[in-house]
Amino acid sequence: MTCAETGCDREAAVRLHIPWAADRDVCVAHARGLGQQDGVVTEPLDGKESEWP
Questions:
Q1: 45 phi and psi angles, rounded to 5 deg
Q2: Which of 18, 29, 38, 47 lies 20 to 30 angstroms, CA to CA, from 12?
Q3: pLDDT tens for residues 16-27?
Q4: Residue 20: CB partners within 8 Å, gap ≥ 6?
Q5: 15 near 5, Cβ under 8 Å?
Q6: Nearest CA to 40 among 49, 31, 50?
Q7: Residue 32 C-alpha from the chain's centroid
Q8: Rounded to whole angstroms, how far apart are CA atoms 15 and 45?
């Protein structure tokens, strides 16, 4: 599964639970930035726990 962010072809490793939008699966690079927004909860996808500290 690839990252849900437009134009990104990296493999998704983290699910973002976003209160004001639908949950989405993104790569580690996008998760680091988007996961810092207030209210966003990050969850490593099954089998990808070692990629997300």
A1: -75, 155
A2: 38
A3: 999 999 999 999
A4: 39
A5: no
A6: 31
A7: 8
A8: 6
CA-based end-to-end distance of the chain? 20
**Residue 8 contacts residue 40 (beta carbons within 8 Å):** no
The number of angstroms, rounded, from the C-alpha of 26 to the middle of its chain's C-alpha atoms is 3
- Please state the length of the chain: 53
Contact call for residues 17 and 44 (beta carbons, < 8 A): no
- The residue ranges of every structural domain in the chain are 1-47
**Structure token pair of residue 25:** 């699966």
Q: What six digits make up the tokens of 53? A: 């500290």
DSSP 10: S
Question: How many Å apart are CA 32 and CA 8, to the nearest integer?
Answer: 14
